[in-house]
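Reviewers asked in the last cycle whether our approach scales beyond single polypeptides. To address this, we selected a multi-component target totalling 141 residues and predicted its structure end to end. The input consisted of the following lines:
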Amino acid sequence: MGKYTFAMIKPDAVESGKWGLIINDIIAAGFTILGAKMKRMSLTEAKAFYAVHSERGFFCELVDFMSSGPSILLALEKTDAVQSWRDTIGATDPAEAKSGTIRAKYAENKGRNAVHGSDSDENAQKEIAFFFSEAELILNR
Ligand code: IDP
Ligand code: MG
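The resulting structure, written as structure tokens, was:
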């Protein structure tokens, strides 16, 4: 169980202005924000970030959406961070997400689902490194 995970507030929730409420939920759930930036991904970056899904039917829709506007990129710290953040955001499809989770509260649908969360410690490390240099993270406090 690692201490770090990577989160994104996706373009739907940035555009709708829900992102402030989501940051509040992140802090209320006990995460420490080690790094944060707002960035509009290029289509090429979105394809690289989601390469694991390149054979899936929703890939084009996903990468078009993720490059359609700015996201907020977050490196988070908490005990058992990956699982804790997945529990905080809820199921991929907001219709299936437990009430009180971020996706249940703020997601529009399975594609435009407000937030991203890493699915393993290994991917958390890769995903943080995809967007942040070490100098951009507040570490070793
Ligand atoms: P996750 O974000 O809960 O880990 P994944 O299965 O890893 O879900 O899918 C990555 C992202 O791809 C989802 O968050 C969602 O934005 C999008 N996605 C997944 N399944 C579908 C779908 O059936 N239709 C449209 N978009 C989807
Ligand atoms: Mg995933």
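The pocket of inosine-5'-diphosphate (ligand 1) is lined by residues 53, 58, 61-62, 92, 110-111, 113, 116, 119 (CB under 6 Å). We regard this as preliminary and will revisit it once experimental data from Aim 1 are available.
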